[in-house]
Design goal:
The structure holds two protein chains of two kinds. By secondary structure, chain A is mostly beta strands. Chain A is built from no helices and eleven strands. The model of chain B has no long low-confidence stretch (mean pLDDT 92). The chains are: A mainly beta, B mainly beta.
């Protein structure tokens, strides 16, 4: 098991609602990334945070937003939920170094269902 | 833009036989390459990575992968498969030019089924 923990593990929301997902990084890791994994697909990069600032973003609309806290934990917020937002949301933490050669460690994910 | 192709949705192999899960990539610069495994209803578990140096990379649980620059491939291999290896395997690439960033581009995954 990695030291990355996510909460909650499962969540059901209604279309149009807002949701907040949480992630605690592995000890010593300063970078957090979020991924969306739709059923039968590979994870898609949403964005990453380093030193409490967004530091790279994938092709996701602005209603996907995030935060990183001084202890490197993170939140993913999704507003105006749509049915297509139903997916497994994965948090990954890593230690940012200049070469970018470190691997990311993933949490167990949050399964979001939008009805 | 970077991309990863895993041409096989599913690979079936008998226990004790060697296994190969294929991966090809496309990236503008030089790549960092990774393999992850996912068990049902779980997150991704890191298996191995290619950064530089020896083209044959050894990882966890007896897995290894061979980097081939000319064929832009990074196939995952294991000499003797176990039933417990049955899972979903993802290949991922990161462009070195992104520096310390963490954006991984994943393939669509290959379901490995090892049978007795």
């Amino acid at each position: 098991e990695t030291g990355v923990t996510q909460s909650p593990t499962h969540l059901i929301k209604t279309r149009g609602q807002q949701v907040t997902l949480r992630c605690s990084s592995q000890s010593g890791h300063n970078t957090v990334s979020w991924y969306q994994q739709a059923l039968g697909q590979g994870p898609q990069f949403i964005f990453q945070y380093y030193r409490e600032e967004e530091n790279g973003r994938g092709n996701f609309p602005p209603r996907f937003s995030g935060l990183q806290f001084p202890n490197y934990s993170s939140e993913l917020n999704v507003n105006a939920l749509e049915l297509d937002d139903s997916a497994l949301y994965l948090c990954a933490s890593s230690l940012r170094i200049q070469t970018g050669s470190t691997e990311a460690f993933f949490g167990q994910g949050t399964r979001l269902t939008v009805v | 833009a970077q991309s990863v192709a895993q041409p096989e949705d599913q690979v079936n192999v008998a226990e004790g036989n060697p296994l190969t899960v294929k991966c090809t990539y496309s990236v503008s610069g030089n790549p960092y390459l990774f393999w992850y495994v996912q068990y049902p209803n779980r997150g991704l578990q890191f298996l191995l990575k290619y950064i530089t140096g020896d083209n044959l990379v050894k990882g966890s649980y007896g897995f290894e992968a061979e980097f081939n620059k000319s064929q832009t491939s990074f196939h995952l291999k294991k000499p003797s498969a176990l039933v417990s290896d049955s899972a979903l395997y993802f290949c991922a690439v990161r462009d070195r030019r992104t520096g310390g960033g963490n954006k991984l581009t994943f393939g669509t995954g290959t379901q490995l089924k090892v049978e007795l």
